Amino acid sequence: xxxxxxPPIRLTRAMAIATVAALFALLASSxxxxxxxxxxxxxxxxxxxxxxxxxxxxxxIAGYDLPGDAEPMYVSHDSRHNQxxxxxxxxxxxxxxxxxxxxxxxxxxxxxxxxxxxxxVDREQLWVVGTAASTVSVVDTHDLSQIVxxxxxxxxxxxxxxxxxxxxxxxxxxxxxxGLAGGDGLVIQYSTMTFDETGRITTGADPHLFVQxxxxxxxxxxxxxxxxxxxxxxxxxGSIDLPSAHGLFVTNRNEVFATNITGxxxxxxxxxxxNLSGVIDTADTSFPVPHNLTxxxxxxxxxxxxxxxxxxxxxxxxTENGFGSPTSVTVGTNPFGLAFVx
Length: 342
Prior knowledge:
Blueprint: H1 13-29, E1 40-45, E2 50-55, E3 61-65, E4 72-78, E5 83-88, E6 93-98, E7 104-109, E8 114-120, E9 125-130, E10 135-140, E11 145-151, H2 154-158, E12 162-169, E13 172-178, E14 185-191, E15 197-203, E16 207-212, E17 215-220, E18 225-230, E19 236-241, E20 245-250, E21 256-260, E22 269-272, E23 279-283, E24 290-295, E25 300-305, E26 312-319, E27 322-330, E28 335-341
Antiparallel strand pairs: 1-2, 1-28, 2-3, 4-5, 5-6, 6-7, 8-9, 9-10, 10-11, 12-13, 13-14, 14-15, 16-17, 17-18, 18-19, 20-21, 21-22, 22-23, 24-25, 25-26, 26-27
């Protein structure tokens, strides 16, 4: 049997030009994408009363005002309810924004003197500290209602204690305390179901917190150290020296990052071994007062630089062996907390 084959199609120059023109026309008729799908980093600008939304791929920036004469402090992304939650110290509220348009969609009252906050997405709880009366507020993120507001233990308040940082994980919340008469720091452990105290540990002064893989990390600025504890039993698991240790972020790869807040930008950010047995790398930044941290899905470490006239956020790439070269973006005045919105 003879098989007939068609001769190959050969494009003439005119046909090729027409094909390319058709492709360009098709692309031109497609709707343009407003931003990449890499996500945003949202920065709370305490001084200018707004938030900056930074595209993690292009570093393009958009600004959004909060209601009234706001003083935004920290930011959480509630992916379960498609909202960004911003603590406003001026109005003692948590302001909820749509996580695509950044329009205001609601708010809830919390204790006065809003400072740090942390979100448990699965349990639909946002914990917020209030420094004015040494309170902790818990918000139901499903309907933006206040579940409870309670004070620190009476003995802690009598000793001058004021809540500062907070972290929530696995049915447990941790609140750090400043201002104690003896000069030490304190971390109090709470149940997220009963809101009762379940433990406490004495730490270096000015403690800041992060929990990952059932390990509680505590950075002590005054003690110039980062320490690790079992998050349930509070058993010590190691410690390492780090000058003026302040901001903390621990990834799900157990990479430990911290800031040296008073170093003027020299050795501003550190990557520590997960066992706190050594330093993997340090990086300088072009600006002083490296404060708070987050990491995006593109393996970039974001660092706010705080202060009365400050307006910079550093962006440092994370490599297999440490840090790459940092760059920076200009945001609003006195950037404080920040969060990655995917």
